[in-house]
Design a protein that fits this description.
537 residues; five-stranded mixed β-sheet; 23% strand; Heat Shock Protein 90; alpha+beta; 4 domains; six-stranded mixed β-sheet; 13 helices
């Protein structure tokens, strides 16, 4: 027994109508045929009321009308077939999308009843006296109500001038409208070539139509690739996706990376190092060309942050700020500037952050440089260093009973932070270390709880109410624990009131009396002849 491939013509003709997934493929196929026919100008007219679509071009025309109804035979010359590998199914879409097709080219004309044609009835080709330049196709019964909204997008990268209902389409991503560079996969346009404002978003076109695009891409910030049709093929029949897209997308990315290399090397050769780094560092980093910095003395400022506020567990990291200008190579190599690497702040490394703050270290993003760069030799990785924390003149220790955090609180005169290389004394802010919060004399707020926790729950929700409660609880605890001297206690309470912002109180002297008992009140009297005033609470 033997078997062989058989072809059911009736089944193929019947099911071919379901092969196309997009009704607008009809228009793209007609435009594609016109382009292959050498057209330099195409006119598309559509009347949604009559459902008549007309496509007319100025190409070299159609000599053999049998090609219209020959499925899977492209009918193109040898050069076109080798260059673009047409499928030979383009016009078949017309037979399924329209009830009637009128085609005229040169002195030939045919009027096709599509139902009869699909039933393989013979269709007469007639000769007329007046020649038609190029090819004119008129389709009846075509339902494309959204064509006016879609055709501009459909033709974004199309290389031939197209008029729709008499209005020229922009075709903003056609090769002729872009500054492109040659690449092994075809012409490439890269956004940011002049100003360094690169983009990862890329539109990829094959034979004038988009075959790859990101989910969202502003047209002003997009790369454009026009693929060489000898190397790439689109999926039959819609041609809206590349065959082996996962493999081809890697080729495309590699080509874009190589193009950026050319741009960066050219910019490096013509610009001063300071200009080159300022304009193109982000693009260098994004496309993996860090090594272009290796032989330069200049570094980008975006690699450096200074600590400008109290370090806390905060995703915004508002306590650091990019420096205005990068330090010089001389300053780094001489040790005048210390570069450190630190992980995001948590309760395990808060002491290291406080040491860096006290010493004025710069937080350095070493990942943004090639491992061969000279700056790597001068980076201190503080996470690998042991930092000891010592309370100076400890006064008392107690546990904070907060809603979210329960650290041990140690009141002291100051906090010593000691590493193998230096020592820093902290007097103005609390330091969290190993579930202990050290409170020096200059710390009066409850802010150190933010070094102890991020106050984010298991659902990644920020619990602001618990933060506020614990911050207030720590502030109150500090006041109570420091109540060994009446003057110090009152002064601690008044500090948060910022009485100096009230002009009425300036220069005044008061007498404050606090009562006794479980819930004592107080009274305030104005003294020194500044008026009689007495308040009781």
């Amino acid at each position: 027994m033997q078997i062989q491939v058989r072809f059911n013509e009736e089944g193929a003709l019947r099911n071919q109508r379901y092969a196309f997934t997009d009704r607008f493929t009809l228009v793209s196929e007609l435009l594609q045929n016109a382009r292959r026919a050498g057209a330099t100008h195409i006119e598309v007219d559509y009347d949604a009321g009559t459902q008549i679509l007309v496509v007319q071009d100025d190409g070299h025309g159609l000599d053999d009308f049998q090609k219209l109804l020959s499925f899977h035979e492209s009918g193109w010359d040898t050069a076109t077939s080798a260059e673009e590998r047409p499928f030979g199914v383009g016009f078949s879409k017309c037979l399924y999308a329209a009830t009637r097709c009128l085609v005229a080219s040169g002195r030939q004309r045919v009027d096709i009843d599509t139902a009869a044609a699909l039933a393989k009835a013979p269709i007469d080709v007639v000769f007329v006296d007046e020649a038609i330049p190029g090819t004119r196709i008129e389709l009846h019964g075509v339902d494309l109500p959204d064509l006016s909204d879609r055709i501009e997008t459909l033709c974004l990268g199309f290389p031939v001038d197209v008029l729709f209902n008499g209005k020229p389409l922009m075709r903003r991503f056609a090769v002729a409208h872009l500054a492109t560079m040659d690449s092994p996969i075809g012409p490439v346009h890269l956004t940011g070539m002049q100003d360094g404002k690169f983009s990862y978003n890329t539109l990829v076109f094959l034979q004038g139509f988009c075959v790859m695009k990101p989910d969202y891409c502003p047209y002003d910030e997009v790369n454009v690739v026009h693929l060489d049709s000898r190397q790439f093929m689109a999926r039959l029949p819609d041609r809206d996706k590349l065959i082996d897209e996962d493999v081809q997308s890697k080729r495309i990315k590699a080509a874009l990376t190589a193009c950026w290399r050319q741009i960066l090397e050219s910019a490096k050769a013509r610009l001063l190092p300071e200009q080159f780094v300022a304009i193109y560092y982000s693009a260098m980093r994004a496309w993996g060309h860090w090594d272009l910095l290796n032989d330069l003395d200049v570094l980008p400022a975006e690699l450096f942050d200074e600590i400008v506020d109290y370090p806390i567990q905060d995703d915004d990291r508002s306590y650091i700020r990019q420096i205005a200008a990068a330090p010089t190579r001389e300053a780094i190599e001489s040790g005048a500037v210390t570069l450190v690497s630190l992980d995001w702040l948590d309760d395990d490394n808060a002491a290291r952050w406080m040491l860096a703050r006290a010493k004025g270290f710069l937080i350095f993003d070493w990942i943004g440089l090639s491992s061969e760069h000279w700056a790597w030799r001068h980076v201190r990785f503080l996470e690998d260093e042991t930092v000891l924390v010592e309370a100076v003149s400890e006064q008392i220790r107690v546990q904070l009973e907060g809603r979210w955090v329960w650290p041990t609180i140690i009141l002291c005169d100051s906090v010593i932070l000691r590493s193998a290389k230096e020592v820093a004394e902290i007097t103005d802010a609390g330091v969290c270390h190993e579930d202990v919060i050290y409170i020096p004399t200059g710390e009066t707020s409850g802010q150190p709880v933010r070094q102890a926790s991020s106050f984010i729950d298991e659902n990644d929700q920020f619990i602001s109410s618990d933060l506020e409660a614990d911050r207030d609880a720590l502030a109150d605890l500090i006041r109570r624990l420091r109540s060994v001297d009446p003057v110090q206690t009152l002064d601690s309470l008044l500090q948060d009131l910022r009485l100096g912002k009230y002009p009425l109180l300036h220069g005044k002297t008061f007498e404050v009396t606090v009562g006794d008992g479980a819930a004592p009140g107080h009274s305030v009297a104005l003294l020194a002849g500044t008026g009689d005033c007495h308040a009781v609470s």
